[in-house]
Give the backbone structure.
Amino acid sequence: MIISRQFSFRPFILALLIVSTFSSKALHLFQHATSLPQSRLILFFPTFFIQEAVLWTVACFVLYRLSGNKCLSVIGNVVTGIISALTFVLAASQIGFYMVTGSEVRWDAATSVGNDPEGRKLMLSGLKSFLAASTLLLFLSWLCTPGLSTILNHWLSALFPIRSTDKADEEALLATAKGAFRANSIIQFWTAGAVIITSFLWLVRPQVPYSHISGAIPFTFFGALGPKSASLQVAGDFDFPLQKLIGEEYWEAPNGHFKGWAPGTKPMSMNANSRPEWASGHLPAGFQRWNESKKEKSPNHDMRKNETSTIRYNPVHDPLRITNLDQNVVEPLAQALKNHEIPINHIVFVMMESARKDIFPFQAGSSLHQQILSSHESADAETIQKLNSTLSRLTPVAEKLTGEQSGFSSDGDEPQTVWSDGVKNGMGGINIHGLLTGSSLSFKSAIINHCGTGPLPVDFMDEVHEEIYQPCIMQILDLFNQRKGPLPQDQTKESSEFHDRNWTSIFLQSITGLFDDQNILNEQMGFHKALYKEQIENISAPYYHKDMEEINYFGYAERETYPYLRQIIDETIANGQRLFLSHFTSTTHHPWATPSKFHKEKYFADGLMGKHEDMNNYLNSVRYVDTWLGDILQVLDDTGISNETLVVLVGDHGQAFHEDSPVSGTYENGHISNFRIPLVFRHPLLPRIQITANATSMSLVPTLLDLLVQTKSLNEEDSDIAVDLMNEYEGQSLIRPYQAMYNGRQAWNFGIINAGGTMLSVGSAAVPYRLILPLSSDFEFVFSNLDTDPDEKSSLRAWSIDELSSRVENEHGDKAVQWVFDAEQVGRWWVEERKRLWNHH
């Protein structure tokens, strides 16, 4: 009786398997259809379903041809049922993911996120789309069950004319009747022909991209769970590709703090004579290469990690390094430094989640503004005027911080909740235009912003298991602390010059610190103390209250950190310390929710709110964070430290929506809207300066050190150390003229694309071109010219560099083609060089 009931589900199990795999493949083909020539798509179309055909045939055979042996039949049905159920879940997940992002799932990345307890909350945020896809697949499977079962049984019986001994299946099998032999022969003939032709096409088709497109669930899923081959190349296994630019004729001798430049020589660690004076004694974490240089090295010294020598970064041997520290600081800053003091006693470092430069501040006439207006195309002039007035209040604090005018005219005064900036005209700080993030994965970006290093081009945060190859800014401040002796007896911390005080480094955010090992990373980067959701929601926390509202799967809105911010500043002042406070905003992360009491605006027309719901939510979260930035600045005003505090505001990455590109989000999406970010160095006594530099956030640490030195905010010894360390970083200082090209060498820009190991953004400060470089055969090459196509609406795509270069030549000429070839080679070199510098095995 039990077996009989089990067998009654076989047609549905088979239909569920077929519908799930077919739907998955149909979506997969749809996503890649435009990337293939139509003729090849038609020619090789049958080969795309080879894996599915094998799976369906085996499943059908197991379900209907093993019924003579009850033991084998039960096992076969159970195994097939499990595979069908798994395939159904995977297909629903794939479709649901596409409904939200427009992208395709990579199962290796999905399993990595699923292994993280906090990551599972992120995955559950897509539950609605998953349930919708599941419902659709179940309905289609139920609808197709009778027809699919009949057709496949008919076909299978023709190929293997063995009658079933199970009476329950008699009607489903092809009857042995007059003419059956002839019908079977026809089916066998066409099946054999299809197999031969498809096999031939499979043998002659190119591997890329057809192998990727042909992958079928659940084979791709189990393949992602398998071991991954190592791609590390150790020193000496590869050379810098543009050898003609690093010849001996270009080498430069050391000069003062400049270490020299000779990339053609063999990398050697510094010897005792070249080691700076400050590198004496035991150095803080982050200064491994200086600590090691004090030891006499034997041939087998420091062999670790698979018996491979530990590699250390050396600017002398970096073929990409271009410095601008020999240039004078920009004139407005130089003039201001002559006229008055600009003390930087404290630093507040704000890394803003998903901060897009085009919305910091929001600009009238921008592409997004035009899309909002288009949704109201039938509105009258009065409604449009009211809408623009509402939009003028979207980012008022960002306007004040950047000194950029939004271009809107408001019909009234600012809300009382908006921070009022009291700086004099022409003052307020340095606003950077043209900056790109070095990674669209937040915590890789955090390493770049705090440590000035290139991130590791592998999926997710393997960096937490390695040594960061440059000292982070917090570790440099620890070095300053270490070099200071005790204060004179007649001085206290409160009465001493701020130059002689110690720094304390604190991290603060309102969301979890456990996702992707962020807490481990922050400790590794050198923070003395960190406060996360886990601390502030503890019932014994000093500012805990019962009505704390979680706004998303990561935690609370920024406002929950307000009393801790006040406490940190008050304690720093009372203890006579200097503060480095790093704060990460999070409300602008998916799902872009805001506190229930926060008023939500409808920026898009009501009839189109469904289409633009995500963007509308994002804009409301931007407005919330803008207000919060004003709250931070108000705290600095209220505590009396504004005029001695440098506030650094930088985006971790941008955020693409369907309004920008076919694929939304940052995951495996190289669109430019994910890379343009704001960067502001805010100080009431700094002149208002607008600087344009086609650079990445790798320049942030050297710029910060440069500002501390130029404003005389460090004592003489610390200043000397800072100048020396500025010459160790790969990035240039943004308060000096940016060197886009030097001796024929371009200042290359690299950007890791979330999750890290599959795609790389390659650009150059010298040209407007941009290349998305695939690091696996599953992705296309993408080229864009940001001068002619600033929003990347018509990028060129191809599955090979040769095919792409042909298209680039037709549209952009020979120089662009040569740049593409150089970018591809330099990009691949850079990937292996990062792994080498991180000693990643």
